[in-house]
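Dear colleagues,

I hope this message finds you well. In preparation for our joint manuscript, I am sending the Ig-like domain-containing protein (Timema douglasi) sequence together with its predicted structure, so that both groups work from identical material. I would be grateful if you could confirm receipt.
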Amino acid sequence: MVPPEKLVILDDKGSHIPHYNLGPYNEGSSVDITCVATGGRPPPRVTWWQENALLDDSFEQLSDGRVQNIHKLERLGRRHLNTVFTCQASNNNLVAPISSAVTIDMNPQHTLSKKKTSTITPEPALREQQFSLYLAVSPSSPPPPICACAQQSTTSLAL
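The corresponding C-alpha cells are as follows:
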C-alpha cells in the first residue's frame, strides 16, 4: 500500500490556483474547482470538505492513473466570501489523508437597505447654505461606487 503523493487544485480554466486564493468571482456566478491526486496504490479516494462537512465524494480515476474530483459551486453568494474548501486524498486508514485548501474571494453585489436610508429635505431657509452629508457604507469588497450629483436645488447620491 502506497499513500498518495501530491494534490493540485485547479480553477475552472484548468489553471493551478496561485496562493490558494480562488477568484474573485461575482456574486451569482458558478465555478468548478478540481482537485487532482497523484500517486497512491490503490488509487486514493478524493473528496471535498467545508470545515468538517463532506461536500463531494464523486471522484474518478483518469487514464494516466491520477484521480480527480470536480466540485461545482453553484450561484456563489455572500456566504461564500472567504469560505475555505479543502480537498483530501486517502487510500487507507493507517496514514492520515493529504490535503490542500483554497479560499474563495468574491465581488458581492452592492445593495442598499431601505431601512437604513433617509431623505433630507432642507427647509427654505437652509437652501442657500452649505451643509455636509455623511454616508456610512458597510464593509464591502470591492468598495461600492458612490456619486454625488446636483440638479438645480436638489442633491442626490447614486450608488
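For the figure legend, we might mention the following. The first strand starts at residue 6 and ends at 10. DSSP finds no helices and eleven strands in the chain.

With kind regards,
E.M.
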